[in-house]
Specification:
The complex is a heterodimer of chains A (229) and B (598). Chain A has 229 residues and is an alpha+beta fold. Chain A has two domains: 125 residues; 78 residues, no CATH class. Helix content of chain A is 49%, strand content 11%. Chain A contains eight helices and seven strands. In chain A, strands 1, 2, 3, 4 and 5 form a five-stranded antiparallel β-sheet that branches. A two-stranded antiparallel ribbon of chain A has the order 6-7. Chain A starts with 12 loop residues before the first helix and ends in a 6-residue tail after the last helix. By secondary structure, chain B is mostly helical. Chain B contains 24 helices and two strands. A two-stranded parallel sheet of chain B has the order 1-2. Chain B is globular, with a radius of gyration of 26 Å. Classes of the chains: A alpha+beta (229), B mainly alpha (598). The interface between A and B is medium-sized, with 31 and 35 residues.
């Protein structure tokens, strides 16, 4: 069983290693969490290899999370123990409390600490909630961005206004055309009435002698004064 | 001074109007389904035979009647024989039924269109549940596209009785749809004639774009190969021929009176024979074209789902056995599964129930038609494309154009007899009559926006028009051939067009088409009688047994395909309706086999 913690104080080495061994041999202990990392899925060609340095960073991040959560600076990197690292890249980790006789920190505290700092931990590894999974810790999904007015109502309003404007325009122009046609037809009717009985100075044409009406004797006489060309 | 009949500005408007009316949603969402069910490429054989035997002749008949009589359906049939004006009235009533429920499809298309202007598309992801730890339960159990359709669009009730309330969003969209239709028919042929240029041509532009996009999608070829591989043994199945005849019949929109109405606005010398052939050929070609597009989309969707399924299995195995990432791929999956089964038999046995058997054929086999195809399958495919907003807008705009084009024909069928009748037309102007018709239809259409509205829609679509239309067209054909007299009709056509119809037309009119229609009529009648109580499918939001309902049967869910939409349970109505039972081995049908106009 690999003991992956290198404590600063050699005196604690045996105790911590024993804890690690104990935890790693019964990995369903309540205070241990399984982590699964999918680097290739997240980064594709830019994937980095998971090695001892990455593990060190992970332990540092967990220690950071614990410190931030409990606001006491007693958690050291050496308190975070990893074990059972597989090729998948998955492993178990547990946080020990050196002040309380090398016992493990309760799982609920660890969970709360990780939850609070999830974003920072993800960003340190360029991963996301899906690719850096803490198996017992559910993540809070971010709600989708919703604008104050739903977009569809805006588009609906625009289209509705256009259609109603079109209808009103067509109806109004139809009414105007109808009125114009009515006016024209009444004018034409009046004209037809007048044409029916043509009057010349109050005397109906039929009564007049047309021939006499056409030739005006006054002007005809003047024409004869000019010689024809 | 007598008002002359309004005319189309040019013959092209008439042809576009007929194409716009005939090419509708059925070409997009019913024909591909029939192709898949009845033998792939082989279905084209009965389809083309039926086109020649009943499609073209009946279309020519209706157009000629309309053009000759120059009246809407009621007036035209009155002229043919005064005892036959009932045929015209029947056409108007059927058109009225159709326009009541058809515009709801346009409302749904508007809804999806308006929702396409968001990133990400609202049907791409499930909404979160109340404490934000996961997704909404109903959405998890089905898929985000189905959830969006059944819950957020329809807000569907669990049964027909639970009517629920009118969904105000859908009611708004329906009102908008009716306003658009009113705008287009307001001025009669003057406005309709301009609109049909757009409604006839735009769907083709979109279909071409989708064809290019569809053929370049990953996995499209799978769908096309699947579709076009002819399964000629289906030709011996009588249902194939019946479906082909039915599809041609309803796809052209015969019997509603719309074609008579359109043709009545023609110049008397218009060559309607040529136009009839053109329109029917274009209609059928569009069906085939649309099914190519649909099958590329199917292939893409099936391949995508298949690959997701494989990836899920790979992830499951990687996590269970802590293997290195990348060690399991789609290619070596089967060997690795055997290897793991051999090395860790106990753990593998524990995992067995969760490991799905992914199969591309199973994905392709899920045949869907109707609103399921248009609003669920297509939106699912669209959300996985690049720039999904653009394709979504284009697609739903195309659906709108197709739907509005058909609505123009429907309303023309209702309005033309009304405006022809001197009693009504002398008192009210055209705009008022159109307005009243649209308003009444809109109010009645609010039924379909209720929570149980989709079930009413199903009922109307399945049963409102089918038998009536067959009867109407049968009487029409017999009336023209035998009551009016085929020689008199020949002479009329000679006067109009200048050439007499040749023996092909006469034989089809007098013998073949009536016989075909009679056999279809008998088939459907016996089918209705034998089926007994009518049935409908219901959506169960909880997917559990509904308790205390007396007699119910719950579908064995494990036999459903992944895209199963409905489990079923029976509504204890000793009267009319109970949920239909599943036919094992029969692919999923969201629309019962009866075709509507769609």
């Amino acid at each position: 069983m690999q003991c992956l913690s290198f404590p600063l104080h050699p005196g604690n080495c045996t105790a911590l290693c024993t804890t690690a061994v104990r935890v790693c041999s019964s990995p369903d202990a309540q205070n241990a969490f399984k982590v699964r990392i999918s680097i290739k899925t997240a980064l594709g060609d830019n994937a980095y290899a998971w090695d001892a340095n990455e593990e060190y960073l992970f332990r540092a991040m967990v220690a950071f999370a614990m410190r931030r959560y409990s606001s006491k600076s007693t958690t050291q990197i050496s308190n975070v123990l990893l074990c059972n690292v597989t090729d998948r890249v998955s492993f178990w980790f547990v946080v020990t409390d050196s002040s309380k006789n090398v016992t493990t920190v309760p799982g609920s505290e660890v969970e709360a600490a990780i939850r609070m700092n999830r974003n920072r931990i993800n960003n340190a590894f360029l991963l996301s909630d899906k690719t850096l999974q803490f198996l017992k810790i559910t993540s809070t999904l971010s709600p989708p961005v919703e604008p104050s007015t739903p977009v569809w109502i805006i588009v609906f309003g625009v289209v509705l206004c256009l259609i109603v404007a079109g209808i009103v325009f067509l109806i109004v122009s139809g009414i105007q055309k109808h009125k114009k046609k009515n006016k024209e037809s009444t004018e034409r009717e009046n004209l037809e009435e007048k044409v029916e009985v043509t009057l010349e100075n109050g005397i109906p044409c039929e009564a007049l002698d047309l021939k006499a009406g056409h030739i005006n004797g006054v002007f005809a006489a003047e024409d004869e004064r000019f010689t024809s060309l | 001074m007598e008002k002359s009949r309004p005319l189309w500005d040019n013959p092209l408007q008439f042809v576009f109007a007929c194409i716009s009316y005939a090419v509708g949603l059925g070409n997009v969402w019913r024909f591909p389904y029939l192709c898949q069910m009845y033998g792939g490429g082989g279905f084209l054989i009965p389809y083309l035979i039926m086109l020649i035997a009943e499609g073209m002749p009946l279309l020519y008949l209706e157009l000629a009647v309309g053009q000759r009589m120059r009246q809407g359906s009621i007036g035209a049939w009155k002229i043919i024989s005064p005892y036959l004006c009932g045929v015209g009235v029947a056409s108007v009533v059927v058109s009225f039924f159709l326009s009541m429920y058809y515009n709801v499809i346009n409302a749904w298309a508007f809804w999806y269109l308006f929702h396409s202007f968001q990133d990400p598309l609202p049907w791409a992801t499930c909404p979160l549940n109340s404490n934000r730890t996961g997704y909404e339960e109903e959405c998890e159990k089905t898929s985000s596209t189905q959830y969006f359709w059944y819950r957020q669009t329809l807000n569907i009730a669990p049964s027909l009785e639970a009517s629920g309330s009118v969904q105000w969003e859908q009611a708004l969209c329906l009102t908008l749809a009716w306003l658009v239709v009113y705008l287009c028919i307001l001025r009669g042929t003057a406005s309709t004639g301009k609109v049909v240029y757009v409604t006839a041509s735009l769907p083709y532009c979109v279909l071409i774009i989708y064809l290019i996009r569809g053929l370049t999608l990953h996995g499209a070829v799978n769908g096309l190969v699947y579709m076009f591989t002819p399964k000629l043994e289906q030709l011996s199945n009588p249902k194939t021929w019946i479906s082909a005849a039915t599809q041609i019949f309803f796809s052209l929109g015969l019997g509603f009176g719309s074609l008579i109405a359109f043709a009545s606005y023609n110049e008397p010398s218009n060559n309607c024979q040529r136009h009839a052939v053109i329109v029917s050929l274009i209609n059928s070609t569009t069906s085939i074209f649309a099914s190519i597009v649909t099958f590329s989309i199917y292939g893409f969707k099936a391949t995508f789902n298949y690959e997701s399924c494989i990836n899920k299995v790979i992830l499951l195995l990687l996590n269970a056995f802590d293997l290195e990432e990348g060690s399991l791929t789609a290619d070596n999956l089967n060997e690795m599964k055997d290897h793991l089964m051999a090395t860790y038999p106990q753990e593998y046995a524990q995992l067995m129930p969760q490991i799905k058997n992914c199969s591309l054929e199973a994905e392709l086999d899920t045949a869907v038609q109707g609103t399921g195809l248009a609003f669920i399958v297509y939106s699912e495919a669209i959300k996985n494309m690049e720039v999904p907003q653009l394709y979504s807008v284009l697609y739903f705009f195309m659906l709108l154009m197709l739907g509005i084009g058909s609505m123009l024909g429907n309303t023309a069928a209702i309005l033309t007899p009304l405006t022809d009748s001197r009693v009504i037309a002398s008192r009210f102007p055209k705009e008022v009559i159109s307005g009243v018709v649209c308003f009444m239809n809109c109010i009645i259409g609010l039924i379909f926006t209720m929570e149980a509205g989709n079930y009413w829609f199903d009922i109307f679509n399945d049963y409102a028009a089918t038998l009536s239309l067959l009867l109407i067209v049968l009487v029409e054909t017999i009336a023209v051939c035998y009551i009016y007299g085929i020689r008199r009709f020949e002479k009329d056509l000679y006067t109009m067009i200048g050439c007499k119809p040749n023996w092909y037309w006469k034989i089809m009119w007098a013998f073949v088409s009536p016989l075909l229609i009679i056999s279809l009529f008998i088939f459907y009648l016996t089918d209705y009688i034998l089926t007994g109580t009518l049935q409908y499918q219901a959506w169960d939001a909880t997917q559990v047994n509904v308790l205390g309902l007396g007699f119910f049967s719950v579908l064995n869910l494990s036999s459903c395909k992944d895209t199963s939409f409905f489990p079923n349970y029976t509504v204890p109505q000793s009267g009319l309706l109970e949920v239909r039972s599943w036919n094992q081995g029969h692919p999923l049908i969201l629309w019962k086999g009866k075709p509507g106009k769609t």
